[in-house]
Specification:
70 residues, five-stranded antiparallel β-sheet
Length: 70
């Protein structure tokens, strides 16, 4: 699924070494890759696993769960 999403990237995608915790509106997920204008976001929701390109201005970084637990 990721490979297909990367093939349909809006620009040249850069894959992150590890997923980064992010928030898009009220959804918490992980950033997997990014382009100049978009971020590839994955999350598990009520309807299952989701993977979608989202405009970068909607994405906010969140502290990782390991840092909040400490």
């Amino acid at each position: 699924m990721r490979e297909e999403a990367l093939q349909h990237a809006p620009g040249r995608p850069i894959v992150l070494l590890g997923p980064a915790p992010i928030r898009v509106r009220s959804i918490h997920g992980n950033a997997v890759a990014y382009t100049v204008t978009d971020v590839l976001v994955e999350w598990d929701g009520d309807a299952g696993y989701h993977l979608r390109w989202v405009a970068s201005w909607l994405v906010r970084r969140c502290p990782s769960q390991e840092r909040t637990a400490a």
